[in-house]
């Protein structure tokens, strides 16, 4: 992979280090991490993080966005504080909360930092999963954390918290799902967007060998073909996006080691879908491939 000449020398050196020592497919697989469909995804994510940019991982459910975030955390040897977004998330969920404690016999009010404050103070990664599940009025609280200021006035203590060196934000988004809302432009503009597609072909085959109990190459090839057919079906609008989840496919692979493959596909993939026609479509594929 060629390193762009316009990058600062220090960034080029660090990127060269990651490319030559840790971001090869073999190294990622050995770490049990994310297997990228192409090396550019890893290179671009690392470059953005080295430049102090926030990255937004955008892609279908089960494509490996969280696993990719964990892999980046491992590559940078950075712990990662996480936020699982929902409609119930509020300032306390993000920043922390006050509680009563004792110093000797004296009762005192103590502030317990949340994931945002913890990541900022420790200079580590912050991962915000399904960021578009949070209510639109909640996330602007951390706008200052996500831009050049890298700071926030803690509303619970009135202290200004500035991020330590090493602090970075990785977020993930699933678009179009029930309960999600579009990110407003002010928030979206604070991220570098990286598309995370489903992996296919030989890379998926190696992922199955590495992360499931399957060892029979013939059976693994059938699951790779099933995955390709499911991804095409999603693109054609025949089934919901959940039906092509790589996470669900790996579950089916594990189950198939102990129960018939068609039943494994039913339990791990088909029965998760709401529509009878979608379930029937998937089971028809399973019957054809695993007859």
From TrEMBL:
Query: InterPro entries attached here?
Result: AAA+_ATPase (IPR003593), ATPase_dyneun-rel_AAA (IPR011704), CbbQ/NirQ/NorQ/GpvN (IPR050764), P-loop_NTPase (IPR027417)
Q: Name one GO molecular function term.
A: ATP hydrolysis activity
Question: Sorted alphabetically, which Gene3D superfamilies does this protein's record hold?
Answer: P-loop containing nucleotide triphosphate hydrolases (3.40.50.300)
Q: SUPFAM superfamilies from the xrefs? A: P-loop containing nucleoside triphosphate hydrolases
Q: From which domain of life does this come?
A: Bacteria
| Xref: SMART domains | AAA
- Protein name per its UniProtKB record: AAA+ ATPase domain-containing protein
State the organism named in the record: Virgibacillus pantothenticus
Q: Which residues form the AAA+ ATPase domain?
A: 51-279
